Amino acid sequence: MPSTVYAFPTTDALSGGLNTFVEKLSREAIADHGSFSVAVSGGSLPKLLSKELVNNKQVDFSKWHVFWADERCVGLDHADSNYLELKKTLLDQVNVPASQVHTINSKYAVEKNAAASADDYEQQLKGFFGSNLPSFDLILLGMGPDGHCCSLFPGHPLLEEHSRWVAPITDSPKPPPERITLTYPVVNNAKNVAFVTAGEGKQEMVQKIIEQPELRLPCQRVQSINNGPVYWFVDEAAAGRLEKKLVSKF
Ligand SMILES: O=C1O[C@H](COP(=O)(O)O)[C@@H](O)[C@H](O)[C@H]1O
C-alpha cells in the first residue's frame, strides 16, 4: 500500500496533527486491549511529538508502554541518548509509570556493548509481547537526510536482518557508532507506522522516498505486512518538492 502523506503549513501545525493522530490510536488501543505500546525514535522526533501531546489531558498515559525504535549505546543521562530527549520533552511531564518505560540497559550501554544491549532489549520485548513477533500499536520514526530510519542505514547489512528483533550496530555512519535498532520484521509488523520529519534539509530525501520507491532506501523498506498505510507527517518545508497529488488532507 502506498504511503499516506500529510503535509502541514508549519512544524507547530504538524505537532498538532500528530497529537490528534496519537491520541486517537492510544484511545483505540486502550479500549481494545487495555494498553498502548509505542516505539519512538530519537533525533528531531521527540520535540515534534511532544510539543502538543505533553499538554493533552485526553490521553491516558498511565496505560502507555514506551519503547525505542533505536537507541545509542550511551548512558541514559548522556546528551546523545534518545531516551533522554523524550524524557525531557514528554516523560517528565506525563504519568507513564517508570516500569512501563522500556529503556536500553544502561550498564551495557555505558560499556558501549551493543551486542549485549541488543540481546537485553530483545528480552525486554519478549517480556512484554511474549514469544510472538511484536506488534506495536504504533511506531514513530524519524528520517535522516540520507534516508535512514531507526539505526538502519543505506547499504548496511542490517537492512537484510530477518531473524533478530533487535540488532546491534557498531559502525553507524552517524555518531555514536554503537547502537541498537529494531529490525524490519518488527517495524513492518506494527499496527501503525508513522514517519515524522520537518525542514527544508529533508525536502530532497522526502521527494525521493515518496516518488522513487525503486531506490529501496531504508525508509522505503518500511512496509506494513498487514497492508496498512505508512503515514508521513511532514511540514511544508519538507514536502516542498512533492507532487501535490501525493499529499493527503489530514
Ligand atoms: O541518529 C538518529 O537519527 C534519526 C534521524 O534523526 P533526525 O534528527 O534527522 O530527525 C533518528 O530517527 C534516529 O532515531 C536517531 O537515532
UniProtKB/TrEMBL annotation:
GO molecular function, a single term: 6-phosphogluconolactonase activity
SUPFAM superfamilies: NagB/RpiA/CoA transferase-like (SSF100950)
Transmembrane segments: none
Substrates-to-products reaction catalysed: 6-phospho-D-glucono-1,5-lactone + H2O = 6-phospho-D-gluconate + H(+)
Protein function: Hydrolysis of 6-phosphogluconolactone to 6-phosphogluconate.
UniProt similarity note: Belongs to the glucosamine/galactosamine-6-phosphate isomerase family. 6-phosphogluconolactonase subfamily.
Species whose genome carries this gene: Phycomyces blakesleeanus (strain ATCC 8743b / DSM 1359 / FGSC 10004 / NBRC 33097 / NRRL 1555)
CDD domains: 6PGL
Official protein name in the record: 6-phosphogluconolactonase
Enzyme Commission number, as recorded: 3.1.1.31
Stretches assigned to the Glucosamine/galactosamine-6-phosphate isomerase domain: 10-231
Pathway(s) where this gene product acts: Carbohydrate degradation; pentose phosphate pathway; D-ribulose 5-phosphate from D-glucose 6-phosphate (oxidative stage): step 2/3
GO biological process terms on file: carbohydrate metabolic process; pentose-phosphate shunt
Enzyme class: hydrolase
Keywords associated with the record: Hydrolase
